[in-house]
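Researcher: We plan to redesign the surface later, but first we want a full-length starting point. Tokens attached.
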């Protein structure tokens, strides 16, 4: 399959890139700085701004699925995630690419979420220390949920750079406040490329007990 990956040079994106190439996928990696990635068989590196609708559209044309590991970084526009989602969604509609996998934070809230005291605490803390990031992520989440794409949003807790374990769970139950390997998040996203299990849903991921 041909995958267009956004955020491929980021902390989770690098794991996803390695795993995707290892599984034989062709990857178009859309990054702001192409020097952060080295040339590899099966890898096409596309240097583009997320605000460049034409470049984003060209990167998505002909792909089988789009995977986003985007996240805010120091100096990012406070609406970066929502703006990126708008640009990517528009390009997918233009080129009739249906499958969208997106990594988001566990702080994002869905209409059918189960009540959780720990999430109330976490969201309260985020509103105090990262209110703009939370608001942007929520706007992004809402935009994706409103589309007619075959979307899956993986809501993740605190992440670590530990090696792949394969010991994680996906459910609609809010996660425990425990770190999860970024490599495991990447594995989930790739597994879902060919799966319909979580289409139109936004599962929480957590490390298995």
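Model: Full-length starting sequence:
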């Amino acid at each position: 399959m041909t995958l267009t990956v956004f955020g491929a040079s980021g902390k989770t994106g690098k794991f996803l890139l390695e795993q995707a190439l290892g599984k034989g996928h062709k990857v178009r990696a859309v990054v702001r700085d192409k020097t952060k990635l080295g040339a590899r068989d099966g890898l096409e590196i596309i240097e583009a701004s997320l605000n460049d609708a034409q470049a984003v559209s060209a990167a998505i044309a002909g792909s089988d699925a789009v995977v986003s590991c985007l996240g805010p970084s120091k100096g990012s526009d406070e609406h970066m995630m929502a703006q990126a989602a708008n640009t990517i969604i528009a390009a997918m509609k233009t080129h009739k690419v249906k499958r969208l996998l997106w990594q988001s934070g566990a702080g994002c809230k869905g209409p059918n979420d189960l009540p959780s005291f720990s999430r109330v605490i976490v969201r309260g803390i985020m509103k105090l220390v990262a209110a703009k990031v939370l608001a942007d992520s929520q706007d992004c989440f809402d935009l994706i949920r409103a589309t007619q794409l075959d979307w899956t949003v993986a809501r993740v807790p605190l992440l670590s750079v530990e090696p792949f374990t394969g010991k994680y769970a996906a459910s609609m139950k809010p996660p425990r406040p425990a770190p999860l390997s970024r490599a495991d998040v990447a594995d989930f996203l790739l597994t879902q490329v060919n799966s319909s299990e979580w289409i139109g849903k936004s599962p929480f991921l957590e490390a298995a007990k």
